[in-house]
Amino acid sequence: MKRIFDPQLMGPLAALLGVALVVALTTDRFLDAGNLSNLALQVSIVSLIAIGATVVILAGGIDLSSGSMVALLTMVLATLVKTLGLPFWPVLVSVLLLGAALGALNGVLSSYLRIPSFIVTLAGLIAYRGLALMFNDGAPMFSLHPGLEPIFYGKLAGIPLPFFYLVVFYTAATVMMNNTRLGREIYAVGGNPAAAKLSGINVRRVQTYAFTIAGGMTAVGAILMAARLNSGSPNYGQTLELQAIAAAVVGGASLAGGRGNILSTLVGALTIVIVQNALNLNAAPSAVQNVILGLIILIAVGLDMWRGEITRSIRRLFSHSPL
Amino acid sequence: MPPSDPPLWDVVSVSKAYPGVLANDRVSIRLMAGRIHGLMGENGCGKSTLIRLLSGVDRPDSGEIRRNGTPVTLNNPTEARAYGVATVFQEFSIVGSLTVAENVFLGRWPRKRLGLIDWDAMNSRTREVLAQLDIDLDPQALTSTLSVAEQQLIEIAKAVAANAQLIILDEPTTALGLDEIALLHSLLRRMRAKGHAILYVSHRLDEVTALVDEVTILRNGRVMSAAGETAVQVDAIVSAMIGEDVKDHYPKDRNASADLVMEVRGMSSARGARNVSFALHRGEVLGLGGVLGSGRTEIARALFGLDPLTSGVIAMAGKPLRLRSPADAIAAGLALVTENRKTDGLFFNFDGRANISSASLLQFATFGFLDLKRESEEARRLARLLELSQGAVDKSVRALSGGNQQKVVLARWLLSQARVLILDEPTQGIDVGAKLAVYRLINALTAQGCAIVLISSDHDELLAMSDRIAVVRHGTITDIRMPKDLTHADLVRADLARADLVRAATDQNAEKSLA
C-alpha cells in the first residue's frame, strides 16, 4: 500500500545516492569495510537524537536543548555509576527516564504554559550545559564502568551494535508515526492545531508527548556518547541539537510542522555524515567542513522550496527541445 | 446622468473564475467622478472579486477596465495605486507601531538628501491632508493608540495623500459605532464634493440608502440591477437582491419530529453566549439568524465545549452533559463544521482519508495502533456517499475545490457518528452544485434522525432549509419562529438593527435641536 505521509522520501534518497556515488568515485578509501563501519558509528548518535528532533518538528515545535542535555545526562550517569557506585543497569534506566522527564518538562512549558518551544529549549540549551558543569567541579569523568563500552563497540554477527539500534529505533518511530493514533495526532497537531483541537485531539498533551519522546531519544544518544569513550563530560554534545535539526531539514521535514517523515531524517543524517566523511578522507580542514555543512543545509532546503519551479523549468526545457 | 459625461472608471463586461466558481460573470459598472456608488449583494455574490479586480489584486479573465475611456491593465496593486485607485479593505493596513504621518505616507516617505526621511515635510503635509478632510488627529500620534474608526480615517487620508481619484471602501462600517459611521459618511460626502469617485461596498441597506447616489446589485456573480435601474430605496433594493428563482435551489425535506434530542437551558459562556435556551428535535434543522457578530458563532463554540459555560445546562437524551473540550462534545455525539474550513477545518498536510478520520481515530485504534485498511475503506465509503471527486481520498485536500473540501469536512462528522451537527456557514464560498450536495446531505442526515443547527448569512438558504429559525442578537436567542412567519426582508432588516439605531439617533438629535 502507498505510504500516506512520505511523498518526500524519494527526493532526499536520490540526493543521498547521488552524494554517495560521487564520494565513492572520488574517494579511494570510502568503500573500505573499516570506513563504512566507522561511518555507521559516526552517524548513529546524531541519527538517534534526530528521531526526537523530527517528532518535535512534526508536532510543530523545535528542540534546541538536546545537545546540552546529552552533556548533563552523561555527567549524571558518570556520577551515579562512579561517584555513588550505584548498580549499572538501573542507572541506565534512570538516565533514560530522566531524559524523558526533561523532555516532558520542555513540552509542558511550551504547550501548557505557552512559552514558545524555541525559547523553552534555548533556555535548556544554556541551562543544561551549566548544570552539567556543576558535577565533578566541571571536570570530565573517565573509566566509568566496564559494562559501558560494549554497548557502543559490541557486535552481533559481526555487525556493530549501533547499526541495530538504528534499525530498531527507526522502525519503531516509523511505525509510531504511520500506524499509531499518537503518530497521526502528532502530524495533525503540527499541520493545523486549530483543526486538531476541533477534531477532539488534546493538542497540548500530544505536544508534550512529542517532547517526551525527544527527551527519551536524547537520553539514548547520551548513553551511547558515554559508552563511546567510557566517560562523561560537560563538553559533550556541542551543536548536536543543530546537527539533529539539520538531518531532519535535509530530509525534507518542514519547520512549520506536519510535513516530513522519520526515514527521510535518517537519509538526511547519512547525507551529512557521508559528506563530512569524504572531507575527512580528503583531509579537508574542519573549518571548511563547517562551511560545507552550512551550504548543504541551504541547498537542501532551497531545493525543497523551489521544487515546483525547478520541475516546471525542466519541463519547459524539454518542451522547447527539437524533438 | 448626462451621457456626454465620461466615467472615471468603466468596467466593461469583466469575468473572473476561481476554481469551481465563476465569481464575476460579465460584470459592468461605471464609476463617475463626484458620485458615491453603492455596490450591494449578499455574501458570495462577487463583490469582493470585483474589488480585487479594480485594485489590481487579481486580473479579469475577460472584459475590459477603462480609465477616462482608455483601456488599462492593472497587473498588481502598485499599478492600480499609480492609476489613482485606493482601496480600504475590511482588514486595513495600518501599522500600529508607526505614527499617523508615517502611516499616511507609508512606503512613500518624503526624503531629504542622503535618503534620510524628511520628518518635518511629512508631518506638515499630513497636517494639510488631515485639515483638508476635517480630521482632527495629531500627525505624530501613534496609530495603535487610536480607535478603529480613527484608523479607518487614516486609511482614507492615505488615499487622499496618494492623490487617489477612486476610493473603494469594503464594508467600512463593520467595526464602527454610530457616531463613527456618521463621521465617516460626512467625510465621504465632502470627498464627493471635491470630485472623487467613491465605490461603497456594504450589505447594510439603510446605511447605503442614506449615503449613495446610485447602486449596482450583484447576485451569483452577475449584475442583477445596474446603476439607475433600481431606486436607492430599501424595499426596491431588497427585492432586486432576493430575485425570484430561489425556491428551486433548495430541496428541503421535512423530517422534524417531536422527539427531543437536545435541550439547552440558560446557557452562558465566558466568550459571549448569554442565557441561551432552545430545544432541538429528531430530524429538525434549527436555523440561527442574525448579524455578523451577533453571537451565533459564540453559541456554537459553547455547545461544542470550546468555551467553558458560566451558567446553564446542555442536556442530551435528558442527561446533562459536561463538555470540557471538543473531545467531550464529539463523544456526546456533537459535531461542529466551522465557518472557515481553511483555518480550522482542514489539515492541508493530509490527504482526504486522514482528514476524514481525524475526529474518529479512536474507532480505528487497537492499543493505540490504527487499522489503516479499515480507515481507507471507511473514507472511500463516505467519499462515494458524498459524491466526492475521483481520487479525493488519496489526494492532498489542497488540490480539491472548495465544495469537495467542504464535503471532506462533512464526511469527518458522518464518520464520527454525530447526532447533532452544528453547521456554521456550510455553503460559504462553494459553487451551486456543491451547495445542492450539502442541502441533500442535510436532508439525508435529518431523515436518519440527526438534528442540525444551521448558521447562515445566506437568508434564502436559512429560510428554505430550516424547520424553525432562532433570531440571535447580542449573544442570545431573542425569538424562535417558523420560517413561514419570517420573510427574507425581515431577516435583511434584522441585519440592519444597528442602522435603524443610527436613524433613531439622528431623529432624536433632530428633535432635540427643534426643541
Folded structure, characterized:
- The complex is a heterodimer of chains A (323) and B (515).
- Chain A is an all-alpha fold.
- Helices cover 73% and strands 2% of the residues of chain A.
- Chain A has helices at residues 10-26, 33-58, 66-83, 88-112, 117-133, 149-153, 161-179, 181-191, 193-198, 203-229, 240-250, 262-281, 286-305, 307-320, and strands at residues 141-142, 155-156, 159-160, 231-232.
- In chain A, the strands form two sheets. A two-stranded antiparallel sheet of chain A has the order 1-4. A two-stranded antiparallel sheet of chain A has the order 2-3.
- In chain A, strand 2 (155-156) and strand 3 (159-160) form a beta hairpin.
- Chain A starts with 9 loop residues before the first helix and ends with a helix.
- Chain B starts with 8 loop residues before the first strand and ends with a helix.
- In chain B, strands 6-7-8-3-9-10 form a six-stranded mixed beta sheet, with helices on both faces.
- In chain B, helix 6 crosses helix 19.
- Chain B has 515 residues and is α/β, with parallel strands linked by helices.
- The A-B interface holds A 1-2, 4, 178-182, 184-185, 187-188, 190-192, 194-202, 258-259 and B 304, 306, 325-327, 329-331, 336, 338, 343-351, 353-354, 357-359, 361-362, 364-365, 368-370, 372-373, 394, 412.
